[in-house]
Amino acid sequence: MYRSVNMWEDCLRVAKANGNKAENNELARGWVNSLPKEQQIEKLISIGLTEAAIDIYIQNKDFDNAFKLAEKSEKYKIPEIHLKYTYELETEKSYHEAEVLEQLKILKFKLELLKGLCMHWKYLY
User: N or C: less crowded end of the chain, CB within 10 Å?
Assistant: First the structure.
């Protein structure tokens, strides 16, 4: 109802109260599609939908900004961004870069794991 008369803010308010996160993101993306590209992401961030903003960055193949935004607010999205970036590199036939990226991701995971073990070890002794 609100969508049909371009009352997007009221539409989002009702969706946030009654819908789930995926529906809210889809609705917000539908709203911002009418805006210029630069304003789309700013609007999504301003209304608290950074996950949808990250999805737009990924869709536009702007992985650097997707990583930056995910690092600030949506850390759980980082593996998904890595995966999609790796797929993009493979599509472009940049197999070496994709392999190096995957190895770096594994090394970073191992480093985080070791940090956690060291902290645990420190508390034991």
Answer: C
Alpha-carbon distance 83 to 23, whole Å? 23
Q: How far from chain centre, in Å, is Cα 14?
A: 24
Indicate the pTM of the whole model.
Answer: 0.66
> What pLDDT is recorded for position 62?
92
Is there a contact between 82 and 54 (Cβ–Cβ < 8 Å)? Answer: no
Instruction: Say if residues 101 and 86 touch (Cβ distance below 8 Å).
Output: yes
Amino acid at 81: I
Angle at 12 between CA 9 and CA 18, to 5 degrees: 145
Give average pLDDT by consecutive 10-residue segment, the chain, 125 residues.
60 73 76 78 85 89 91 86 84 79 76 77 64
Q: Which of 53, 110, 50, 59 is nearest to 84 (CA)?
A: 59
